[in-house]
Design brief:
This is Cytochrome P450 family 8 subfamily B member 1. This protein is of the alpha+beta class and 509 residues long. The chain is built from 18 helices and 15 strands. The protein binds protoporphyrin IX containing FE.
Length: 509
């Protein structure tokens, strides 16, 4: 009896503690957003959220309005779904809403990289220097020569023979490989065998890298959520080891034309004494961040053009005009042209089509950790108390990109949606009579905004530009419907289709 009471007491305390951890006692306090814990203790709504983020958030919005807190795998996340109030989230001080905590946990779990304090500064300073302005001139040139090497090599020398392929795999493959070579460098031309053999090695090495990358890409949604089966985990471990070697410092240093973007970041880390094995892992992070989104986006862009002849015609005319202005012409046997960054600044119609493509197919989920109790102030004057230790998130794809008030007929591709009648870039979009500042958010916003964004915009334009001037291309079945989006990737950036679409292409001249 003497022992029984303390034992019962210990069990009681453990039980209450367990229930507390499972979130059973959490109640909505006055001033807080509606709370929806879901039926399953601790897990809450995570299964539905994982299955289809879009549908889940839509259902919650209908039930609770545009601000609510849900339980997802032990975390309480407040979703803000009023785009007019996004400024309160994006501009909140980093002392209250912090992005780095997520980024650091994610890069360690997903890429094995152990973050250092200086990461953010190094990444942003290198990106500002080398992925925009004059830096972008250099990157455009590098991308250009790699695209030409890959695209022109893939067609038969018999010019009138059609080549068939899946449009998704073709676009992703070419854009991934050219992007990788432009950033991580080429096999040196001076090596044994000369220029032709070096180009051949670039093609074959980047091809191997792409196929391994796709395997990682397909495991990524489960990896990001931490729900891999043992077999998948084994495959992830194998692929990580492969990439830590394939894009290692040593391999990179053996190359020519390494981009300053990658070089400067690696050098800054070396100077800070970061171990080489950890820098190798960071290079894998860079490979992932730089190549996981642009390829899928290039597929959607080409597909939308193929399905919208009026858009294809307008852009083809624009591209032909820009080429003509520079006095260049593609001729049989002499296909190389010099497509510069400056030429790509003269294509407002293509710019609008790129923006429209990203509106329809890029769906990042922006998350922050709440570091201090805070008050969320909405644009219409409402205020909500948000608890320290929780998280906050916005999902612009649903609340901005597909909002019919901001973008009428939101599911349709309209290549000129981001153009004013006078041909200039359109930036005025409205909701409830108010101007919406964040009217398209494929790059995220605030501290987590894609630091590379000018470069991929350029890459997409270069790829389409070259496809149009070099090739005739068409869908095998012109009536084929645009495939559905694979919503399991929602929140991760550019989305992918549930299936590929067959097309054929051949040289235009
Ligand atoms: C269509 C192509 C692309 C899209 C839609 C895109 C979008 C995004 C988004 C939404 C984020 C923020 C992710 C978050 O909040 O967690 C991000 C991060 C990032 N992006 Fe991009 N991106 C693209 C291409 C690129 C390219 C080509 C590069 C580099 C050359 C790049 C470099 C990065 C890096 C390094 C980060 C991590 C930033 C950090 O951790 O602070 N992205 N991107």
């Amino acid at each position: 009896m003497g022992l029984l009471l303390p034992m019962l007491f210990t069990i009681f305390v453990a039980l209450v503690g367990g229930l507390y951890v499972l979130g059973v006692f959490r109640k909505r306090r006055p001033g807080e957003p509606p709370l929806d814990k879901g039926l399953i203790p601790w897990l809450g709504h995570v299964l539905e959220f994982r299955r289809d983020t879009f549908k889940f958030l839509e259902r919650m919005k209908k039930k609770h309005g545009d601000v609510f807190t849900v339980q997802l795998a032990g975390n309480y996340i407040t979703f803000l779904q009023d785009p007019l109030s996004f400024g309160a989230f994006v501009k909140e001080s980093r002392k209250k809403l912090d992005f780095n905590t997520f980024a650091e946990q994610m890069v360690y779990r997903v890429f094995g990289y152990v973050p250092i304090e200086e990461d953010y500064h190094i990444l942003h300073s290198s990106s500002n220097k080398h992925l925009k302005g004059e830096g972008l001139d250099v990157m455009t040139e590098a991308m250009m020569s790699n695209l030409q090497n890959l695209m022109l090599h893939s067609v038969s020398s018999d010019q009138k023979t059609w080549k068939e392929d899946g449009l998704f795999m073709y676009s992703y493959n070419i854009v991934f490989r050219a992007g990788y070579l432009a950033l991580f460098g080429n096999v040196p031309h001076k090596s044994e065998g000369g220029e032709e053999q070096a180009k051949e090695k670039d093609r074959s090495q980047s091809e191997t890298l792409f196929y391994e990358f796709r395997k990682y890409d397909q495991l990524f949604p489960n990896l990001a959520l931490g729900v891999l089966s043992p077999k998948q985990q084994w495959e992830v471990d194998r692929l990580q080891t492969f990439f830590w070697d394939a894009v290692s410092v040593q391999k990179m240093k053996a190359n020519d034309n390494i981009s300053r973007w990658v070089w400067d970041m690696h050098q800054a880390k070396e100077e800070l004494g970061v171990k080489e094995s950890n820098i190798n892992k960071y290079l894998f992070v860079l490979l992932w961040a730089s190549q996981g989104n642009t390829g899928p986006s290039s597929f959607w862009l080409l597909l939308f053009l193929l399905k919208h002849p009026e858009a294809m015609k307008a852009i083809r005319e624009e591209v032909d005009e820009v080429l003509k202005e520079t006095g260049q012409e593609v001729q049989p046997g002499c296909p190389l042209i010099n497509l510069t960054h400056e030429m790509l600044t003269k294509t407002p119609i293509l710019d609008s089509a790129v923006e429209e493509t990203l509106r329809l197919t890029a769906a990042p989920l922006l998350l922050r950790a709440v570091l201090q109790n805070m008050t969320l102030k909405m644009a219409d004057g409402r205020e909500y108390f948000i608890r320290e230790g929780d998280r906050m998130g916005i999902f612009p794809y649903e609340d901005v990109h597909l909002d019919p008030e901001i973008h009428p007929d939101p599911l349709s591709f309209k290549y000129d949606r981001f153009l004013n009648p006078d041909g200039s870039k359109k930036t005025d979009f409205y909701k409830a009579g108010k101007k919406v500042k964040f009217h398209n958010m494929p790059w995220g916003a605030g501290v987590s905004m894609c630091p590379g964004r000018f470069f991929p915009t350029n890459e997409l334009k270069q790829f389409v530009f070259l496809m149009l001037i070099y090739f005739e291309f068409e869908l095998m079945n012109p009536d084929e419907k645009i495939p559905e989006i694979d919503f399991r990737r929602c929140g991760l950036g550019s989305m992918q289709p549930v299936r590929d679409v067959q097309f054929r292409y051949r040289l235009r001249y």
